[in-house]
Design goal:
- The complex is a heterodimer.
- By secondary structure, chain A is α+β, with helices and mostly antiparallel strands.
- Helix content of chain A is 26%, strand content 19%.
- Chain A has 4 helices and 7 strands.
- In chain A, the strands form 3 sheets. Chain A has a 3-stranded antiparallel beta sheet with strand order 3-4-6, with no helix packed on it. In chain A, strands 1-5 form a two-stranded antiparallel sheet. A two-stranded parallel sheet of chain A has the order 2-7.
- The termini of chain A are far apart.
- By secondary structure, chain B is mainly α.
- Chain B contains 14 helices and no strands.
- Chain B is globular.
- Classes of the chains: A alpha+beta, B mainly alpha.
- The interface between A and B is medium-sized, with 14 and 15 residues.
Chain lengths: 178, 359
Amino acid sequence: MSNNNYFSGLFSGIKSLLVGLGVTMKEFFTRKITEQYPENRKELKMFDRFRGRLVMPHNENNEHKCIGCGLCQMACPNGSITVTTEMLDTEDGKKKRSLVKYEYDLGCCMFCELCITACPQGAIEFCTDFENAVFDRAKLVQQLNKPGSKVAEKKVAPKPEAAPAEKKESNPETPTTV
Amino acid sequence: MFDFTVVTNWIDALLLSFLPGWAATLVECVLVALAIITLYAVFAIILIYMERKICAFFQCRLGPNRVGKWGSIQVLADVLKMLTKEIIDMKNVDRLLHKMAPFLVIVASMLTFACLPWNKGAEVLDFNIGIFFFLAAGSIGVVGILLAGWSSNNKYALIGAMRSGAQIISYEVSIGLVMLTMIVLTGTMSFSEICQQQADLGWNIFRGHVPAVLAFIIYLIAGNAECNRGPFDMPEAESELTAGYHVEYSGMHFGFYYLAEYLNLFICAGIASTIFLGGWAPFHVLGLDGFNHVMDYIPGAVWMIGKTFFVVFLLMWIRWTFPRLRIDQLLALEWKYLMPMSLVLLVLMAVCVSLGLTL
């Protein structure tokens, strides 16, 4: 029995070694993945999931999706997000929270993405820019909402979307501590 | 085939024409030593560059590419850096042995380097027990490694040296047996005669067919272990032993170990190409006279170096494919697998030769 083990072990070992050699030989001829950064700066494309810095996408009408709920600010472990909001009266007499300033400090962000996970509106995301070095720490504090921008109005919700619309309405009331 | 003795005889005659016999011999010795040391340095640089590039390619990287075109003078820069570094005097080391150890390693490496047959008539150390001498001179290196570990007064260095010693001494058994197998085939231990035979009769790996091919594979494995290279780089298992036996060395003393490691790789490959792949003997196919004639025009040194680099590539391929073995696995591989196999091969080869089954 031990003899059997000896020889079968030997041959299976040799086989697995050959498989390994085959894998590396294939790798030897594949295209190399090294990015030669300063030279290929023009055509260098970061992979999509790269977390460069936080941005708030705006549409062509200078509208963003942030409702100023402040969940991201509470989710951030480092306190790198400061959301400033104000209460506005809508035409139908209701009070509504609206974003004034969304400040993001790149210097103390640890790119954990908890803010993006926390956001109920999908208003913020990480972009793939990585050349973030500056000479002054103050420049790392960025305002993410563009000047003059406002929150994008949701289209009048059809029947199936009743539930999210309701949720949206209740949102501004819950985070009272913002 | 061009016979290099034409050149050496001409130099000899030239020197004798205006020098007494002993002075001519002295000058020739110095010339040969210079040639060997130069070749040694040049091959070390080529090998280190090759290793870094090939390692990178196996890992889907580009390797050094900043210093010079394709990083070609990177190694030169590294050598200069190494030369200018301070050799630190350690406090509690055994001073004499500590300083002697790297020289033992490099002397052993250079002695074996001198055994390689570069061309027809261009062997430096060539006598009737060449292979025997090669094995003996190669073993001096182990002494250097053990001394380095012992004299460093450092437990990591000592453990590294002990592992290295155990490994090299074990694998020398296989190397010796494999060489014996090939000596059974060739009937001579002299490197020049082995090469001449292969030029006349065909490469040993073809002449010896099955046992020779198996012996070649065993030689590659054992040779890799002899050079202390991955997957057998046990003495340098950096996660456990920092750098192994040379952890207390700095500057060019460390550089000697580094140099010797790469040159041992080259020597191991060179001996493999001498014994199995014909040394400087060109590739001949029986019956294709035109082809053989063209092959004869390629100089023997090119054949020798080309084959050696081919084997070096094989060894690097092995190194960058397999993970490091544990010390008990390492010794089990030798004593339970390679040594019995090479004993069987020796008998098989002896049977083949005595029955006239070789080609």
